User: What shape does this take?
Amino acid sequence: MQEAKEKFVTAAAFLPRRQTLDSLGKAAAGCKGCDLWVKATRTVFGEGAQRAVVMLVGEQPGDKEDLAGHPFVGPAGKILDESLAAAGLEKSQVYMTNVVKHFNWMPDERGKRRIHKKPRYSEIQACRPWLDAEISVTRPRIIVCLGATAAQALIGRNFRVTRRRGEFVASDLAPYVMATVHPSSILRAPDDQSRREQKQAFIRDLERVARELRKHPSAA
Ligand code: URA
Assistant: This one.
């Protein structure tokens, strides 16, 4: 019984045979590969250019993204947009997605707000076929993992963003793979000055990505 349940915890069976961003997005809308679809409003699939040179990978859609149906449209997305612009990266160069495509949440104490709940390892694994398909369709030159969940899913479970942020690491997933902080961690900074400093550090990591792209203008 246990074995049958384990087998079902994957999105693999929901993937379309012919894979384009369009066909993947449509198929992902009906994904029931793990239980997260039950509480979420909808699947929030990745978005951006099919030939995007940079793929940004976050953890999972938040409350705003779940309602809107688009990734990174809430407060963390605003910081991300501002930082991309400050680093000289155009939105048209970027594809944004998450390791998990459904919002995982629990009610707050008063039952009024939906509080973000970190996805489990099994849920990250279940959702992985979608991310792998997005990578193989867009073939990004650079993948940027935003935060520990994305970094540990894509680079390795022992990877520590605090120690190795902003470094390009070897990976089979793309020619360049880097991890940096999640923009929501900047929102949680204790005061304005540390928020400014953390945002500057985030922009410096993204500037490294922009510099790498300038070295290969034809690929950009
Ligand atoms: N945080 C994420 O990791 N992804 C989103 O899409 C929004 C917030």
